[in-house]
Amino acid sequence: MREKAEDPYVSLGICSRCHKGILGTQYKMCAECREKKAKVEAKRLARETPEQAEARKERVRTRYYMNKSSGICVKCGKRNAVCGTVLCNRCLAKRRSCEKSTSQREYREDKGLCIICGRPAVSGRKHCEEHLKMLRKTVANAASHIDYTKHPWIIDNKHIFEN
Ligand SMILES: [Zn+2]
Ligand SMILES: [Zn+2]
Ligand SMILES: [Zn+2]
Questions:
Q1: How many angstroms separate the alpha carbon of residue 37 from the centre of ligand 1?
Q2: pLDDT per residue rounded down to tens, the chain (163 residues)
Q3: Domains in the chain: how many in total?
Q4: Please, what sign has the CA dihedral across residues 40, 43, 44, 45?
Q5: Which ligand is nearest to the CA of 142?
Q6: Which letter does DSSP use for residue 117 in this model?
Q7: Which of 57, 59, 64, 98 is nearest to 81 (CA)?
Q8: 141 C-alpha to center of ligand 2: Å?
Q9: Residue at 52 is within a domain
Q10: pTM of the complete model
Q11: Which residue segment(s) compose the domain that 56 sits in?
């Protein structure tokens, strides 16, 4: 499994699935899409017999302990775990960057820097020239199938359109 580059929609806070919904902090999909996905998953699980369910859980557990006992990352199962942890370098870094991103965003907002790249933001905005351009393009795309006046993300990010 190759790691995918960050979805441009996700970095702009828009759902990677429907390109319409607004993202919370730690998800790549909006609430609506997560709900849809959960329903599909629930259906699949509902069809499972208790034996199948047990076997599935057992597989997950076994993999976890196998990896852990052989010093392999329990998350990706690909790289060696860092000494004293159950995760590899990459998975540890990912977890850290996840924790960092909210406070980093706040810090950048505070200092008047672009919340995506940290370069100086256009005065009065939350993004640099380049990212404002990107945002406008993304939103123009998304806007072809959304209601401008009602969309909470658009309302929230009005500053993108005011120029
Ligand atoms: Zn969505
Ligand atoms: Zn890993
Ligand atoms: Zn930027």
A1: 10
A2: 444 566 778 877 788 888 887 776 667 888 889 899 999 989 988 899 999 999 999 999 999 999 999 999 999 999 999 988 999 999 998 888 767 767 777 888 888 998 888 899 998 888 899 888 888 877 776 666 655 566 666 666 666 655 4
A3: 1
A4: positive
A5: 1
A6: T
A7: 64
A8: 35
A9: yes
A10: 0.45
A11: 48-97
